[in-house]
Write a structure and sequence with these properties.
Blueprint: H1 32-35, E1 38-40, E2 49-51, E3 54-55, H2 58-64, E4 73-77, E5 83-89, E6 95-101, H3 109-120, E7 127-128, E8 130-136, E9 139-145, H4 152-157, H5 166-185, E10 199-201, E11 207-210, H6 233-238, H7 243-259, H8 265-273, H9 277-280, H10 291-304, H11 315-322, H12 333-337, H13 355-361, H14 365-375, H15 393-410, H16 414-427, H17 433-445, H18 449-462, H19 467-479, H20 483-502
Parallel strand pairs: 3-8, 7-11
Antiparallel strand pairs: 1-2, 4-5, 5-6, 6-9, 8-9, 10-11
Amino acid sequence: MGCCSSSLLTESQIPAEKWNLQSQQRRPSLSPQHAATMAAAAEGGGGRDVPAFTQFTLAELKAATNGFSGQNVVSESGDKAPNVVYKGRLQNRRWIAVKKFARTAWPDPKQFAEEAWGVGKLRHKRLANLIGYCCDGEERLLVAEFMPNDTLAKHLFHWENQTIEWAMRLRVAFYIAEALDYCSGEGRPLYHDLNAYRVLFDEDGDPRLSCFGLMKNSRDGKSYSTNLAYTPPEYLKNGRVTPESVIFSFGTVLLDLLSGKRIPPTHALDMIRGKNILVLMDSHLEGNFSTEEATRLVQLASQCLQYEPRERPNTKDLVATLGPLQSKTEVPSYVMLGIKKHEEAPPPPQQHLSPMGEACSRMDLTAIHQILVMTHYRDDEVTNELSFQEWTQQMRDMLEARKRGDFAFRDKDFRTAIECYSQFIDVGTMISPTVYARRSLCHLMCDQPDAALRDAMQAQCLYPDWPTAFYMQAVALAKLNMQSDSLDMLQEASKLEEKRQKSGKGS
């Protein structure tokens, strides 16, 4: 039994048609987001599943954010380059953060896309990674992993339950230094307006650096929207961000961690020169910190805040200095933050599972194959009404391709089935959720879960309440090690199937 290989769209392969925003297709099709391979984060990604960077449609992001509802707003910022960040959830259950730019920020869609692709190539466990973008008319949006546990600013300046303990503050500094060092090593050393609002906490309470700061707020490079007192002096002179500017901004974050409040760098440096280090320290720590470690952190902050850029350390210096200061490494971040651990997976569905549900929960591809063979095309009846004029030779060839695919599918020749079903789908005159479901299983048999998920999602687009489409997504997600999403999808499929049975429609 042979298998087919799937390919990813790389930056150098962005077709010119991407800029033709008015192009239409005859049949419903998946966006590149649904075609993205689920890949583990590179460079110490810790096994996290991060989708490959891709392009979203505006309709997808509208659906994910409930029409960009005000209730979904996470943050608003920037007088010079206004933008809003929304929380959303994709059709595949993944939570996302969507940054929506002002209409005038990026007039040229190609320039915006190129900037986004540059950032989208980065993958690291210390980043809230960029997973996509959208250019539609005048709309410019970025899509990133969603971090559910607020910002460093919230935990430092607006805490309700407890302030951040000293060991956690050192961890924040170290993790963000690691993120900056990774970005610098990957050729993206510029970070725009680094501050406590750019440091986010993930589901495990680990600090991450927002990827949004790796991209300018607009084509004009208006990169600093915070108080001028915290802006690097060289930026005030020439309006340009340099790698040394990023180090200066990192120094202001160190001041935040030390003091628990926003202190202008000039004022802080006066306190440091006067050796008033204890006055600088956050009183909410109540003295629960190492004076030696605090002195080292103050020294590093002072170095980062030097007026002359050449006198500041680089990212490797930051990592080398902060690494030895780490303590309580065995204690999870969520414990030190005093937040509840993120639920790894929802409980399995309680209702009785059908044979299809049982097969999917066991990941029994052979049993799923037998069920799909027996199902035939009865679920396609409402989608395939063709006029007499459409029965052309091309139409007959297309149906013949589907017939050959069905024979190959029945005989477990999954490679041939994929080829034949693809011929049928590519013509685009006739749509069939059953064909997508069958090709999805073929991809699973060929160890291509990313392509299987794409087809299962397309089946759902064509037939939104069809349990089989959800079941196939559940299996593909499980194969991609996305267990929580898989169980979510399995439960949804089971509910839909139970609803159909009660209404007398069957499965």
